[in-house]
Specification:
The structure holds two protein chains of two kinds. In chain A, the strands form two sheets. Chain A has a four-stranded antiparallel beta sheet with strand order 2-4-1-5, covered by helices on one side. In chain A, strands 3-6 form a two-stranded antiparallel sheet. Chain A has two domains: 102 residues, Alpha-Beta Plaits (2-Layer Sandwich), CATH 3.30.70; 66 residues, no CATH class. By secondary structure, chain A is of the alpha+beta class. Chain A is elongated, with a radius of gyration of 25 Å. Chain A starts with a strand and ends in a 17-residue tail after the last strand. In chain A, helix 3 packs antiparallel against helix 4. In chain A, 42% of the residues lie in helices and 18% in strands. In chain B, 68% of the residues lie in helices and 0% in strands. By secondary structure, chain B is mostly helical. Chain B folds into two domains: 47 residues, no CATH class; 424 residues, Up-down Bundle (Formate dehydrogenase/DMSO reductase fold). Chain B has 19 helices and no strands. Chain B is globular. The chains are: A alpha+beta, B mainly alpha. Chains A and B meet through helix 1, strand 2, helix 2, helix 3 and helix 4 of A and helix 1, helix 6, helix 7, helix 8 and helix 16 of B.
């Protein structure tokens, strides 16, 4: 991974954040991300992000669970070791519905959560650069990626004019690394792009 | 246009003029402060109960489950009673977080986190009973369908007891995932304001490196919605399957088709009662009256009176069918073993009726629903009643079923059986005390999300928009904020 230079603008209200996002995007800047303390509905659309396909993945995992349950149980009870239980049919589909349902839910839930963690790169012992400590408290932190051509001072004052209560320039690692939150180690020190 | 939406009927979800930062402060403060003396006292009592439970279990494993006064006729006694009781309690959390999320009930945000935690701990307690009831507990893994060297001899997938294995373990896993994925952003909040190194490290590990990125929030929302959609039928299926343990048998008093809905209503009933017990304490101890408001308490009391009455209808239906079926075994069970106050276990039936059906009716009165003392008292009464219900179902059906020669003498538990039960209380409260100390007991991010529609300070800000013409407003760029946060979700 490489380090990049970012301009950070902090907003304290969604009412100023949304117009600011619009202005920054029309001005042609590339918004790296907006970090918010809670799910701000509509922000993903304002940023031009596409809809997530996580629910589709969930559906596929669920179907996998259904077929695993039905496949295993029918193979076990009607082929591998058919048990004669009071002369009842070996292929007793109604009796398998509870377990089939449970496994559908189990596969879908576990699969989705793992996919979610994979996509968002969430795991214990993972550390990321946090542009502002209050992004999980009360600030909406807009992070803009710079290039060689970006005039940082212009951008900073542009953000202040758009309603940012705090602005900042940070050179930071955009990806994740293995680290501890009580230590300020600097990962991948040598590669600074766009200083 | 509803620029300044304010319902006359619905009271605010959060009281007072609060900013986002105030919400963080209020909810995280108990984690950062030293626990009170009361916390230590409660915690040590819970640990003591847990240790006694462990000793009771040690005796159970050493001497066998005859320790519990179980016999050939009454093979299920307190143990399975307690199992069903705890599983029932474990239904409220996922009901609150999943079903109320789908029904767009805003008030769930104040109580869902603690209720979900309660669910997980209650299911942990419930799981102990069938496992230790196996007697040779080191063989417990035989319930899992794995390829083995005994044939392979598989488990019987047609058996409700095996359905239960799948239902309870799935329910536990899914509830845990739902709870923890919701906790991630809040643990990150605690991490980012941590002052000590240890807290920074531990909450750093626990929060999985959550940043609050918009894309992550978008996926998080999608995940919670789908998990809610999955958990809704799951929560109904779990107690349905528990009721199948009884309903698919041919024991008088168990062999009824009414069991699944009756058990689910009972589970919601007792679960909400347990949530009330804990919430009344939490809001008092942590001073969270602004977040867990009287509105929350009242809403839950309404659920209690509804489900209590559903359970009451089920009891009466059973009694009616006991007579209407003209089956003498059913008649004997319902009209002698249960409804006759002077039969050996008649006291438990009437205890159940008094606690579950009669006493919750006071919640038809608004004054009672909004009275904390009554709420707390009733929440305990309801759970006593629901314990009686499971005891009635299990013991009064088993002790005299068909052949009088197989009837049992009066069954009462030993101290070890009681010790095991109080031991699960120890487990439950040990976990809950630790949760209340180290985790945000209220979903911080979700409260912030509803704050705009319900907090006084944000409503005032919207005031000036009242005078803006709709056309001007719609094109001024303010549209997103207001429309997206109209409180409908």
């Amino acid at each position: 991974m490489a380090k990049k230079k970012f301009v950070v603008g902090c907003f304290d209200d969604e009412a100023t954040l949304f117009p600011a996002v619009k202005k920054v995007r029309t001005a042609g800047y590339k918004i790296h991300d907006v970090y918010t303390p809670f799910a701000v509905h509509g922000l993903d659309h304002a940023l031009g992000l596409r809809e997530t396909s996580l629910h589709t993945a969930g559906f596929i995992y669920g179907i996998t669970g259904t077929s695993t349950a039905l496949g295993c149980i029918s193979w076990i009870l009607s082929y591998d070791w058919p048990l004669n239980i009071g002369g009842k049919p070996h292929f007793a589909l109604p009796a398998w519905i509870p377990i089939t349902f449970e496994l559908t839910v189990l596969f879908a839930a576990v699969g989705m959560v793992l996919t979610f963690c994979y996509l968002c790169q969430l795991s214990p012992f993972i550390k990321k650069h946090h542009f502002h400590a209050r992004a999980t408290d009360d600030l909406f932190v807009m992070v803009i990626e710079t290039t060689d051509k970006t005039n940082v001072d212009d951008l900073t004052s542009f953000l202040s004019n758009a309603g940012a209560v705090e602005t900042d320039v940070q050179i930071a690692e955009a990806g994740w690394w293995l680290g501890r939150y009580d230590k300020d180690e600097v990962p991948f020190q040598n590669k600074i792009v766009a200083a | 246009m509803h620029l300044k939406y304010e319902s006359q009927l619905r009271e605010p979800l959060v009281y007072g003029t609060k900013t986002y930062h105030d919400v963080t402060e209020d909810i995280v403060r108990p984690i950062e402060a030293k626990p009170s003396k009361l916390w230590y006292i409660g915690f040590y009592i819970a640990v003591a109960l847990l240790l006694f439970g462990v000793y009771a279990l040690y005796r159970d494993v050493t001497y066998g489950i005859g320790q519990w006064n179980l016999n050939k006729t009454i093979g299920w006694g307190w143990d399975i009673t307690n199992f069903v009781w705890w599983v029932g309690i474990g239904h409220a959390g996922t009901l609150i977080s999943a079903i109320l999320l789908l029904f767009r009930q805003g008030w769930r945000t104040g109580v869902n986190r603690a209720a979900e935690a309660m669910t997980i701990f209650a299911v942990m307690c419930a799981g102990q009973f069938p496992i230790w009831h196996m007697g040779r507990v080191w063989m417990a893994f035989f319930v899992l369908p794995y390829a083995n060297t005994r044939g392979p001899l598989w488990v019987n997938f047609n058996s409700p007891l095996l359905w239960d294995v799948f239902a309870i373990s799935t329910y536990f896993t899914v509830s845990l995932l739902f709870w923890y994925s919701g906790l991630l952003p809040d643990l990150a909040t605690v991490r980012d304001r941590a002052k000590t190194k240890l807290r920074k490290h531990l909450y750093g590990v626990a929060s999985f490196g959550w940043t609050g990125s918009t894309k992550h929030w978008q996926r998080h929302e999608s995940l919670s919605l789908v998990l809610a959609g999955l958990s809704t039928p799951l929560v109904l299926s779990v107690h349905t399957i528990v009721s199948f343990d009884f309903a698919t048998s041919v024991v008088p008093g168990w062999h009824t088709t009414i069991f699944p809905p009756y058990f689910v209503a009972g589970a919601i009933f007792s679960g909400f009662a347990m949530v009330q017990t804990l919430m009344v304490i939490i809001r008092k101890v942590f001073g969270m009256q602004d977040y867990i408001t009287m509105g929350h308490i009242e809403a839950m009391n309404k659920v209690i009176v509804l489900t209590g009455s559903i359970v009451g209808v089920a009891y009466l239906t059973e009694l009616f069918m006991g007579w209407y079926s003209q089956n003498k075994y059913e008649g004997y069970t319902f009209w002698y073993s249960r409804a006759n106050l002077f039969s050996p276990y008649g006291w438990s039936y009437w205890g159940m009726m008094a606690c579950n059906v009669l006493s919750p009716q006071i919640f038809w009165f608004r004054k009672m629903r909004r009275n904390l003392f009554v709420t707390f008292f009733m929440s305990v009464i309801v759970n006593i009643g629901m314990w009686f219900e499971r005891f009635v179902i299990i013991v009064t059906s088993l002790y005299r079923d068909y052949l009088p020669s197989a009837w049992s003498v009066y069954y009462s538990p030993t101290i070890w059986e009681i010790g095991f039960y109080t031991g699960t209380f120890g487990l439950f409260f040990t976990c809950f005390f630790l949760f209340a100390k180290y985790f945000p007991v209220i979903a911080i991010a979700e409260i912030k999300y509803v704050l705009k529609t319900t907090g006084e300070s944000y409503k005032d800000k919207m005031g000036h928009l009242e005078h803006v013409a709709p056309e001007v407003f719609a094109h001024s760029g303010h549209g997103h904020t207001v429309v997206e946060n109209d409180g409908s979700n």
